[in-house]
Design a protein that fits this description.
- Helix content is about 40%, strand content about 15%.
- It folds into 2 domains: about 150 residues, Alpha/beta knot, CATH 3.40.1280.10; about 70 residues, tRNA(m1g37)methyltransferase, domain 2 (Trp Operon Repressor, Chain A, Orthogonal Bundle).
- The chain is an alpha/beta fold and about 250 residues long.
Length: about 250
């Protein structure tokens, strides 16, 4: 998969995408991430990428011309089709389901705004979709783009050392993840639910499902409201709510 990012700070994108799972995905040639600076495509002695807004008011607005020239260079770099996604608090909220859809594409183009945003005429002509990572405002779209790159990159086949890890993540089946425990020289098995030490894989799976259902009911009931639970799930959740947490 190829991800191109239009940003005034391509070094940030390069450095953040070089770490952890996403960095490993690039090393394994599963993913490539490219930063493009619209300032490189600006004209004039000052290579301006912004100007004052029509109608007055505070702040500056990113100019359409350098953005359009930069986007043309991005498209020319690879013939693969790619949706143009603008990182924006006004966009559709990013979800794990959306991440899975994006991860299946051959290529993405992410736009990172700065200042008061992008000239709306550029947005209308070139942006296919706006994406938000939450109801708050950042100084620019780079952090949001880094979130998208990480979420999408880790779903590339072979990016994770254990493919099952992605399938067990929170939100993959609409629920929050269950609690996890590991071996500790200091604590031993103190506080670890006995079922996890039993070796009974069916009982462990049942316990984990009950914990996921219970945690979601307790912490994110809005997720449960959108799900159609099976009869077995309803029984597990009812037991958890009644106090049977084992």
């Amino acid at each position: 998969m190829r991800i191109d990012v239009v940003t005034l700070f391509p070094d940030f994108i390069r450095d953040s995408a070089g770490l952890g799972v996403v960095g490993r995905a690039q090393e394994r040639a599963l993913l490539t991430v490219h930063g493009w600076n619209p300032r490189d495509h600006a004209t004039g002695n000052y290579r301006r990428v912004d100007d004052r807004p029509f109608g007055g008011g505070p702040g500056m607005v990113m100019l359409a011309e350098p953005l359009e020239a930069c986007l043309a260079a991005v498209r020319a770099a690879d013939p693969a089709p790619a949706p143009v996604l603008l990182m924006s608090p006004q966009g559709r909220r990013l979800t794990q389901a959306k991440v899975r859809d994006l991860a299946a594409l051959p290529r993405l183009i992410l736009l990172c705004g700065r200042y008061e945003g992008l000239d709306e005429r550029f947005v209308a002509r070139h942006v296919d979709e706006e994406l938000s990572i939450g109801d708050y405002v950042l100084s620019g779209g780079e952090l949001a783009a880094a979130v998208v790159i990480d979420a999408v990159g880790r779903l590339q086949d072979g990016a994770l050392n254990h493919a099952e890890s992605a399938r067990q993540d929170s939100f993959e089946d609409g629920l929050l993840d269950c609690p996890h425990y590991t071996r500790s020289g200091a604590c031993g098995t103190e506080g670890v639910p006995p079922v996890l030490l039993s070796g009974d894989h069916a009982a462990i799976a049942r316990w984990r499902r009950k914990q996921s259902l219970g945690r979601t009911w307790q912490r994110r009931p809005d997720l449960l409201a959108r799900m159609a639970l099976t009869k077995a799930d309803r029984a597990l959740l009812a037991a958890w709510i009644a106090g049977d947490r084992d």
